[in-house]
Inverse folding.
């Protein structure tokens, strides 16, 4: 399953929540893909925030971290992840 993540780094709390919003028109993404807001404490330095987002998503979806893959948006606040 592919999901869209809106990342918020440097947050005081770590949290994953599904948000209701108009579907985004991003290449390679089903328009009805779910959109999640992920808040993490780490800052976007040396990939720390992306690793924290992967950890938060794996906990939220109860899957191993190796099954959460960042597909697009490594340096963007809007990211696309695939969860197998």
């Amino acid at each position: 399953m592919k999901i869209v993540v809106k990342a918020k780094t440097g947050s005081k709390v770590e949290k994953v929540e599904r948000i209701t919003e108009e579907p985004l028109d991003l290449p390679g993404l089903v328009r009805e893909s779910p959109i999640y807001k992920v808040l993490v404490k780490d800052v976007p330095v040396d990939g720390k925030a992306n690793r924290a987002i992967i950890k938060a998503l794996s906990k939220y979806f109860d899957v191993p971290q190796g099954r959460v893959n960042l597909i697009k948006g490594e340096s963007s606040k809007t990211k696309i992840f695939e969860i197998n």
The chain is about 15% helix and 35% strand. The chain has a mean pLDDT of 89. The radius of gyration is 12 Å.
